[in-house]
Write a structure and sequence with these properties.
714 residues, alpha/beta, Chitobiase, domain 2, TIM Barrel, Alpha-d-glucuronidase, C-terminal Domain, eight-stranded parallel β-barrel, five-stranded mixed sheet, 39% helix, 9% strand, binds beta-D-glucopyranuronic acid
Length: 714
């Protein structure tokens, strides 16, 4: 008897431990609640929130109730009474009139469809909204306040999203290969869908709802028409069903040639009546099984994808045809502006603007044009795309890349918030000072009726979702900025750290310092002073500024840096490609004058002589050396700071990040040495004295090959 009991106890203990490990640090994302470790605060929380009452019932409210109950139970470390009455002390939540009446002075119209208010009303904390989704967002926000140990009584929070469509873009193929993915294969297991619902789909929905993401494009922009066939649509419907109560809609990429490939038509011409009818029928079929289907994302006439220009039609013709198909069902079309062709002997920087600006006003009102933050392609630092602010009659949405294609991929610790903020805060000057990119995409500058923002996901089926443990911070940041682009990089970092690593001051301070130092470090060791697109061909892994034989001119690093014995950089002023003319005059003038151009963007716009005097007093060559070395030094400092966290963060992540930082130091050094040896051939100047000399030759770096680096497969 005793021995049986022992075994049972042991297995219970084992199960508990096992459960803790599984749902532990690595895979819990920011919805991994933990008990408040500040005893005084814990007492206050227990006193303030003993009971939960959620008014009303619906799948979304049921989720809110469960989330609140389970989250609170863990945070308080004691059971929570959910059977409380409307008059209980504790938390009262609901979207209905009765709850709203508890806040008589509140203007609920301001909150819109997704906003919420959290406010103390007597001895009750009221979470209210106009919709169930708003309540769910409010509940997640409330749990975040507790997880980040805000004092009680909690300050009032009124929050509604500044942007309507906040969408993740998965570049996931149907065979589960993730284009530019560095964290395993796709989380969508198309083979076992629709019948098998992986717990991950639910965890994914929770994590996204907790940060306000309300849409997901499941498939790659380099699209496969098969996903639009019935068997796949049923799989999509199964995912949509999981996501629906979390306020998340599904979208698909539409391959423009689908009417030919799966419809048996001879053409995909958007002005052809049969093609139009095919898309209309297809849209109806989709909405029959997914009534809240979000719509289509389209990459057309870019990098080999088919599009309307195959039939001498415009991007507007193509987008409008799809828009007409989904309009009766409330769907939208996100048409990408990432287009460029090698056949046009034009600076690639200028091509998206040239193509789209003339089409302003020609799109249906359920079309958003999706523009990458910069004019080229997700480089470590890009000036803002000149399209922002230039299309007042067409809602433009932002496309950020969360996955780190050009940013150290799966092994570099990079916190992307400052990069996103830099783009959002850039002033387009299109309607005078203060015409920021953020105001373009939140619709306030041009009164857009529809607004959106997309982030190319860094999510895969790795145990921790994002490969690098700090990749989670970038997913989190994207969601938080999509909700409120005014949040600061520091505030978001603090929230994420506290929810992911706990509230210990030393940890929070050290991890924050590391995160904030990571972006300037990466820019310095990869592409300082406005260098861009000098990564390895195809996979974009590592430095390869010497490459000049890629399939098309504008895939070659030499096209972008233009180094010669006179200097380095791409002349985009009036004496060069004149891309600067695409900006408002104030921006153009600022960048065009080499003395006012921010040095961070210098080589984006100017071919600068090697002996040019920089603001530091150094010559350009010396500055380049300085920045590359500073980048590597900064990563070494980050590594050192991380070592100081031994014992303060869990062993698993401590050792993962330690190993990754070793790789990062190695690769940053590789970037620095390879680039400076290569550019030194043109500057014909030695490294300034005092710098550690490269231990390898340029030839060594040039012969490195990585045929199986992620990004080369299908
Ligand atoms: C580039 C990627 C490529 C994508 C393309 C796009 O290298 O894999 O297909 O962008 O955004 O950055 O369409």
């Amino acid at each position: 008897m005793i021995s049986v009991m022992k075994t049972t106890c042991c297995s219970i203990l084992f199960l508990v431990l096992f459960h803790f490990c599984r749902a532990g640090h690595h895979d819990g994302l920011w919805i991994r609640y933990t008990k408040t470790d500040n005893p005084a605060l814990l007492q206050q929380y227990r006193r303030a929130f003993p009971v939960i009452h959620i008014q009303g019932g619906s799948p979304t409210l049921d989720l809110a109730r469960t989330e609140l109950q389970q989250g609170l139970r863990t945070i308080l470390g004691q059971p929570v009474d959910t059977a409380g009455s409307f008059m209980s002390i504790g938390i009262i939540a609901g979207a209905g009139k009765q709850v709203q009446e508890l806040l008589p002075s509140e203007d609920f119209t301001q909150l819109g469809k997704e906003g919420f208010v959290i406010r103390q009303a007597g001895n009750r904390l009221v979470i209210s909204a106009n919709t169930d989704a708003g309540i769910l967002y409010g509940v997640y926000h409330f749990l975040r306040l507790l997880q980040t140990q805000q004092p009680v009584p909690l300050a009032t929070v009124k929050s509604s999203p500044k942007i309507q469509h906040r969408i993740l873009n998965h570049w996931d193929n149907l065979n589960r290969y993730v284009e530019r993915g560095y964290s395993g294969i796709s989380i969508w297991n198309w083979h076992t869908l629709p019948d098998y619902i992986d717990q991950r789909y639910i965890d994914y929905a929770r994590a996204n709802a907790a940060i306000g993401i309300n849409g997901t494009v499941l498939t790659n922009v380099n699209a496969n028409a098969l996903v639009l066939t019935r068997p796949y649509l049923e799989k999509v419907a199964a995912l949509a069903k999981v996501f629906r109560p979390y306020g998340i809609r599904v979208y698909l990429t539409a391959r423009f040639s689908a009417p030919i490939e799966i419809g048996g038509l001879k053409t995909a011409d958007p002005l052809d009546a049969d093609v139009q009818a095919w898309w209309k029928t297809k849209a109806k079929e989709i909405y029959d099984i997914i009534p809240d289907f979000g719509g289509f994302l389209v990459k057309a006439n870019s990098e080999g994808q088919p599009g309307p220009q195959n039939y001498k039609r415009t991007h507007a013709d193509g987008a409008n045809m799809l828009a007409d198909a989904v309009a009766p069902f409330g769907g939208i079309v996100m048409w990408r502006a990432f287009v460029y062709t090698n056949e046009t002997p034009e600076d690639r920087f200028k091509q998206a603007y040239n193509e789209f600006k003339p089409l302003d006003g020609q799109f249906r009102n359920n079309v958003l044009v999706q523009v990458k933050n910069g004019p080229i392609d997700f480089q470590p630092r890009e000036p803002f795309s000149p399209l922002f602010g230039a299309m007042p009659k067409t809602p433009l949405m932002m496309e950020f890349q969360v996955t780190q294609e050009y940013l150290g991929q799966g092994t570099h610790l990079l916190y992307e918030a400052q990069m996103f903020k830099e783009a959002l805060e850039a002033d387009t000057w299109q309607k005078g000072k203060g015409s920021t990119v953020a105001r373009v995409i939140d619709g306030s500058l041009h009164q857009y009726k529809m607004t959106g923002i997309a982030g190319v996901a860094n999510i895969g089926n790795d145990a921790n979702w994002t490969g690098h443990p700090f990749g989670q911070a970038n997913w989190y940041t994207f969601g938080r900025l999509a909700w409120d682009h005014e949040l600061s990089a520091t505030a978001i970092a603090d929230e994420w750290i506290k929810q992911s690593f706990g509230n210990h001051k030393t940890t929070v301070n050290a991890v924050r310092n590391i995160m904030l130092a990571s972006y300037p470090a990466l820019v310095n060791y990869m592409t300082p002073l406005g260098l861009h697109h000098i990564m390895g061909t195809g996979h974009h892994y590592g430095p390869a500024p010497w490459v000049s034989n890629a399939g098309r001119a504008d895939w070659n690093p030499v096209y972008y840096h233009q180094a010669d014995t006179v200097g380095i950089g791409f002349n985009r002023t009036a004496t060069g490609s004149n891309a600067l003319a695409q900006y408002a005059p104030q921006v153009r003038q600022l960048y065009e004058n080499i003395n006012t151009c921010p040095e961070a963007y210098l080589l984006w716009f100017h071919h600068v002589p090697w002996q040019h005097k920089m603001r530091s007093g150094r010559t350009l060559w010396e500055e380049l050396c300085h920045d590359y070395y500073a980048g590597v030094d900064a990563v070494k400092t980050i590594r050192q700071q991380w070592q100081g966290l031994k014992g303060l963060v869990d062993e698993e992540r401590f050792s993962q990040v330690s190993m990754l930082l070793d790789i990062q130091v190695k690769e940053a050094t590789w970037w620095r040495d390879a680039c400076l040896l290569y550019f030194g051939q043109f500057s014909r100047r030695p490294l300034p004295t005092g710098y550690e000399q490269p231990d390898k030759t340029l030839e060594y770096y040039q012969q490195l090959r990585f045929p199986y680096a992620p990004g080369n497969g299908q």
